[in-house]
Amino acid sequence: MTQPVKAKKALGQHFLTDLGIARRIAETIDASQLPPGLDDRGELPVLEIGPGMGVLTQFLLSSGRMVKAVELDSESVEYLHKVFPDLVVIEGDFLKMDLSTLFAGEFALIGNYPYNISSQIFFKALEYKDSIPVISGMLQKEVAQRICASPGSKVYGILSVLLQAWYDCRYLFDVSPGVFNPPPKVVSGVLRLTRNSRRDLGCSEKLFKTIVKTSFGQRRKTLRNSLSGLIDKENPIMQQPIMSQRPERLGVEEFIELTKAFEKELKSKQS
Q1: I need a labelling partner for 47 at 20 to 30 A (CA). Which of 55, 84, 180, 235 fits?
Q2: pTM metric for this prediction
């Protein structure tokens, strides 16, 4: 049987065909699955990214929540309008959108995220972290595991630190290639991120991002070598024991403390 919307390789489309898996993904944002106080009444609006033919959308709509969907593929948009006439479908590129215009307050983010831009989607969501208390959905297993990885893991990196600074990240379950049309060449994974209690880093968020990205940009080097371009090599900070570590050994709190130390020294140089 031919599916009504053709999957487009350029858009990274792999349509989920297993309704049981789709239901499980939708249930990851049920109020009963979330921390107390986050969405006790189950009324948090939902923004779905890349609904395709609506296999996940149907279960989101049945929850009674307000659901809006962002879809770049005009063929999918036309199909969604026909099958879900009450669904608010926003045709466009999620990565270029001002998400603050979509809802009056907080909302959940969910989707079967396109593999080719999944990391960019999560970086984009970080820009609106104070409006998005929960992020859930499916992406390439490797990327999902990287987001949820602990310090010391080979896959722990930039995404891990920047997201875990603001969210509690939990890997939920695998999804095999056989439940997609066309099947991807990789295993997929479902995860859920829930906003933690942190509201401020206590240091420059911009500098924090710079230090994390610069550290992992040369992850095989020690911090003393990778961060030498940000501060004088003769600075006392560079002699601290932590600077002999590689970035994957540091947790979020250690990166925050490192940023505070750098910020203090950089400010003193400017004064």
Answers
A1: 180
A2: 0.93
CA distance 10 to 1: 23
What per-residue confidence (pLDDT) applies to 102?
96
Which residues make up the CATH 1.10.8.100 domain(s) of the chain?
A: 205-270
Q: Residues 163, 168, 171, 177: is their CA dihedral positive or negative?
A: negative
The one-letter code for the residue type at 67 is V
DSSP 3-state of 187: coil
Question: Radius of gyration of the chain from Cα atoms?
Answer: 21
Burial 67-98 (b: 16+ CB within 10 A, else e): bbbbbbbeebbebbeeebeebebeeeebeeee
- For the chain, give every residue range classified as CATH 3.40.50.150: 9-195
Q: Could you give the CA distance from residue 260 to residue 264 in angstroms, rounded to a whole number? A: 6
- What angle in degrees, to the nearest 10, is found between the helix axes of 118-126 and 141-148? 30
Average pLDDT, the chain: 93
**Nearest residue to 78 (alpha-carbon basis) of 89, 62, 69, 70:** 89
The fold adopted by the segment(s) 205-270 is: Helicase, Ruva Protein; domain 3 (1.10.8)
Give the pLDDT band (50/70/90) at residue 174: very high
Question: SS3 of 16, please?
Answer: strand
Each residue of 35-61: pLDDT tens digit?
Answer: 999 999 889 999 999 999 999 999 999
Please check whether residue 241 is in contact with residue 213, taking contact to mean a CB–CB distance below 8 angstroms. Answer: no
Indicate the CATH number of 9-195 among 3.20.20.450, 3.10.350.10, 3.40.50.150, 3.55.30.10.
Answer: 3.40.50.150
- Tell me if 96 sits within 8 A of 11, measured CB to CB: no
Tell me the torsion sign for CA atoms 197, 201, 205, 211: negative
